[in-house]
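FAQ

Q: What does a record look like?
A: Structure on top, sequence underneath. For example:
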């Protein structure tokens, strides 16, 4: 039987190299990609907020699997949170952290 490891504290901080940041931001704000996100979110248009976060383990203090300061976006109908596509991460040469989420604002 596998044992579960309880994570009490998880450091979700990270720093992206400026070139990697620019590359991933460019991919995440590409017009074609923005259109795909808007279609999935069933809204007219979205804007990339330039907010990224590393998903965190689900705990009592992080029940949504994200750092607490980003939960306001999860609870709002005005924002969409996506997993950054692995090919965007690879193209930008981002290997740590291995996963990122991006926040988009729905434009009315």
């Amino acid at each position: 039987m596998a044992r579960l490891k309880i994570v009490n504290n998880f450091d979700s901080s990270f720093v992206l190299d400026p070139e990697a940041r620019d590359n991933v931001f460019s991919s995440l704000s590409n017009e074609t990609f923005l259109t795909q996100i808007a279609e999935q979110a069933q809204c007219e248009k979205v804007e990339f907020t330039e907010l990224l976060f590393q998903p965190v383990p689900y705990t009592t203090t992080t029940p949504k699997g994200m750092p607490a300061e980003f939960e306001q976006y999860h609870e709002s109908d005005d924002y969409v949170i996506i997993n950054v596509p692995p090919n965007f991460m690879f193209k930008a040469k981002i290997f740590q952290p291995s996963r990122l989420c991006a926040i988009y604002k729905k434009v009315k």
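Q: Is there anything notable about this one?
A: The mean pLDDT is 89.
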